[in-house]
């Protein structure tokens, strides 16, 4: 079905938002799509960070590799094959030490250009109007229109709106959306029950010629009180370019992240690096360090029954989507996006028949 739809606003340029935009473009070729994100770049928790000083490989500060389970191999085959044929996903060939998941039915992939390339692929397909550095703080309903207001005071008018940011950020929104949520106590209660794990990530960048001293692509570290996972990015992604130096990413475990959640990321970096030196003493000193705090890392408890998306308001349509309404994997985000597209098209079809 190729149709046109009123302007659709999508808040969040992560995996779910990008896939929603791509799916809507394929169904509604003439529709106007606008995507807003508070970050400087796209990707959300599938973000890739580059060095400012060192000439090295970029690091994935969020998602590390993509695991495709038996459940989704057939269900999302089209998406997987598209990403693989485009070279955006390739098989994970490096060793991941300490990986407890030995299920032979699960296939693991990496993104050679960084996991943000997956999100960029779908955003590019969508040809959506993209606005970064736009943190949405207010959502108002006026007649048949949704008005989205950013922290900087910019206003966007939409016929329909999809919110894909973490649920606590949805609950913090000002404007009439707060009244709509209050008017639906059952939905509000389920939203308030959604919870996330938190963790810190640190990217280490090295100049060309630096020897790392380890040969694995990733390593789980269960015995440390701080560090959970370390990846050598160039080995993990099976990349070899002598003009670029190696890079390493470190993820803390969830208890450490929760304990120090309100600490500034830069305050925590020295502590994390000290733990890193203890567990990987051969690791050289980096030429550049970049810290990041994931307040909303992975969904710990999803929205009840994981519906894929939730219709918050019907006219104008406001949908809540994202991994909180499915689960925290690439395929969970794709599933949420499919549910969102179907809900949008269903409402649009109903309007067209009135």
Automatic annotation (TrEMBL):
Ranges where the Amine oxidase domain occurs: 111-339
Any single GO CC term annotated in Swiss-Prot or TrEMBL for this entry: extracellular region
Record GO terms (molecular function): oxidoreductase activity, acting on NAD(P)H
Descriptive protein name: Renalase
The organism of origin for this protein: Magallana gigas (Pacific oyster)
Lineage top rank: taxon: Eukaryota
Span of the signal peptide: none
InterPro entries: Amino_oxidase, FAD/NAD-bd_sf, RNLS
Pfam families reported for this sequence: Amino_oxidase, NAD_binding_8
